[in-house]
Amino acid sequence: DRIEGHTKGKVVIATVFGDVHDIGKSLVNTILTNNGYTVVDLGKQVPIDTIIDAAVEHEADAIGLSALLVSTSKQMPACIQELHQRGHEFPVMIGGAAINRDFGRRVLYPHGKESDEVYEPGVFYCKDAFAGLDTIDALVDEPARESLVAKIRGEARTFREQPVEVDDAPPVTDDSVRSEARTDVEIPEPPYWGVREIDVDLDEVFPYLDRHVLFKLHWGGRGKKGEEWRRIVEGHDGEEGFAPKLERMWGEADYLHPRVKLGYFPCAADGNELVIFDPDDPERELERLVFPRQPKHDRICLTDFFRPLPDTSSGDRDVVALQAVTVGPEVTERIARLEADGEFAEQLFTHGLGVQAAEGLAEWLHAEARGGLGIELDQGRRYSWGYPAC
Ligand code: B12
């Protein structure tokens, strides 16, 4: 479908402001480019003004927005409002794990519930890159575009007219209850107090790599089963399998520069807040980490797993392990260079390896933390901001 010197249309794409997830967006770029479109890829964390300015400058046939965080997905309606207000005519394709078809139906109305006005050029939810290709194929073809716009408007209207379900659950900030989680368990003794940087041997991290996520999610093995899966993992007909590729790349990955810090702090629960104390002065508060509480079910909040404040006034503080890891900036630079050089396959493999190296490093450090506290490896969880508490 790709003909030298000819373009089927121009699309300006970006991952929205505040969001670093660009794997999906880059895939969309590759699929559209390989199918004859000119794609202006603005990268990640892109502010609305930059997106609109680029669409105007390049006379785009459509804008493509990607968001993977619930928080950053709010940039999408904000962008549509801005486009609407400025009277632009760029259809907007939207995608990413944070949103769904109903989200697309809602944001077609730039003023929300306040007005029935729609964003005339249309907002098109795309569940994957191929849906994006089908959408842009329709958008650059006048009759197909008209019928697609009419279809999404009809769907959005029907969705809007549905009765709204009332959610009477308390907000996640409600701290009027405590779950049944026990607090009378023994407080573990940390090997030291405060923060230390720990030496990392990458060979020790290797077993902690999540091969399933790496092979399926990052390296394109999703949906492959049985014999087909075995062939791509082990290799076939001279093609290097994912497993030997991982071993080889790991051995050659001199662009990974792992550094980790692990700290043990005295702490106590205060409602939905975990109070972190100074190891040198356990009465001095350093920080309060605020966690959400389940609105339903057992009403658990992570703080429920720590001794509450009143019990600890005697100085009998609980202990929390806090950790931070990085594989360094060089892998990101390498990925950018591979992309600039058009080495998309190598970029995909390096990117996946970089992301999973950081995840594996966090898992390895978590094992160190549990070892330090004398906790079994099948006990304890590692939580990270933004991830679901499940
Ligand atoms: C890889 C990953 C990361 C990597 C991102 C690396 C990178 N350069 O992209 C790293 C480790 C950096 C990362 C960081 C974070 N992440 Co993250 N991450 C993921 C993960 C595991 C996979 C995302 C992915 O790449 N999927 C594969 C691609 C191909 O799929 P996709 O993006 O959905 O794209 C496809 C379609 O959606 C569609 N599409 C997408 N965009 C568009 C746009 C257009 C125009 C079109 C047409 C189509 C389209 O087409 C694509 C191809 O088919 C997801 C979990 C998941 N399963 O989704 C969590 C996830 C998105 N991350 C999450 C979180 C919380 C974070 C962090 C906040 C973690 C933290 N505490 O620091 C940070 C975010 C920092 C920030 N400010 O953005 C949460 C989001 C939760 C939420 N509801 O908001 C998720 C869902 C994990 C989870 N289960 O909790 N993350």
Fold and architecture overview:
- The chain has 390 residues and is α/β, with parallel strands linked by helices.
- Among the domains are: 10-161, Cobalamin-binding domain (Rossmann fold); 201-257 and 327-373.
- It has 12 helices and 12 strands.
- It is globular, with a radius of gyration of 25 Å.
- The model has no long low-confidence stretch (mean pLDDT 93).
- Cobalamin is lined by residues 13, 18-25, 27-28, 64-66, 68-70, 93, 95-98, 126, 128-129, 132, 217, 355, 384-388.
- Cobalamin (B12) binds next to α1, β3, β4 and α5.
List its traits.
single chain, 390 residues, alpha/beta, Rossmann fold, 12 strands, 37% helix, binds cobalamin
Give, in spatial order, the strands making up the sheet with the most strands.
2-1-3-4-5
Write down the CATH topology of the domain at 10-161: Rossmann fold
For the CA atoms, what is the radius of gyration?
25 Å
How is the biggest beta sheet arranged? 5 strands, parallel
Gap between N and C termini, in Å?
45 Å
Count of alpha/pi helices: 12
Rough outline: globular
Helix content range: 25-40%
Low-confidence spans: pLDDT under 50, at least 5 residues? none
* Total number of beta strands: 12
Please tell me the overall pLDDT. 93
How much of the sequence lies in strands comes to: 15-25%
What structural class do you assign from the helix and strand content?
A: alpha/beta
